[in-house]
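haha ok so turns out i had the wrong file open the whole time. this is the CORRECT one, sorry everyone. sequence first:
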Amino acid sequence: MTDLRRWAPSLTAFAKWLSIQSESAAKMWSRRLNSEHAYHVEGAVAEAVVWDFVMCRCDSARLTDTGGTGGVDFEFVNNGQSFLVEVTNISTDAASEASGMPDKELFNGFYSLLTEKIRSKVRGKFKQVQRQRQQQNHPLLVFVTTLHWNVSSVCIDYRAIEYAMGSPPKITGNYNSATGKVEGDLYQWTDLDRSVFLSPKLILSPDGTPIAQAKFQPISGFLLGGFGLNPREVPVLGGLNPEATFHFDPTILPDIPFCSLHPWPASERIGLKWTITEEQMHRQKQAAAEHRLRVSGHGDLLDSIRDTIDREID
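then structure:
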């Protein structure tokens, strides 16, 4: 049985909000939350924590799937701009299988990112989203979650998004079959085989240059969140579709790092650009941690540690 205590605040708030939005939807969600099957329970938790996470950053929210209609889950509004969110969860069992790590047990060994799972989860929402596009005129994000503790700790990061955007890079070189040797320097390349939005098949630009081809235009982008951790420590990052029907403006959620393909169209190389770099994010987290220490009355301890470090450096 899934222990729900760590998500209790989100579950309570979402249950109250959902009952106001739609009594039937609230009953269906409650049945899933109390199901004997972990898959359904985790899916219900995912909807609650995503709603809570995004709602804290927006002005208002509306339920767009009133229960069993196959519609998109939520519509959020922030600073007058609306966007849709569809939630999909990678179960703890699936995350364990894909990563090679157990859920909560301490693990010290090799592990894999969830690139293929992310790709399949986002693309798996395409038909559902496509059915709704005639009725919706807003950007849509697919929010991929997992409640897996170890995966949330080490697999939800900048590299995970970059691999999902451009596919994991491979190291290769120019092999001379006559000499049996590699000529020149080794280099990285990607076949785009596991990219969320890009097709492995290149197309020709008007001038005949081979360029990358983006698909799944009804999906504006995706978010990836590791909700197996303490709510304050949950990592959430996003990737944007360069050919989206409705482009998502990342300034709507300014504290979330979004990755885009840049430049676009892409021909000789796949370039990536972040709204918040990894270094900037590290500095922001450090500043937030220091602020919490000072607010809690431990500013003197922080200053003492800094003085000690400065003396050791000198």
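The chain has ten helices and twelve strands.
again sry for the mixup
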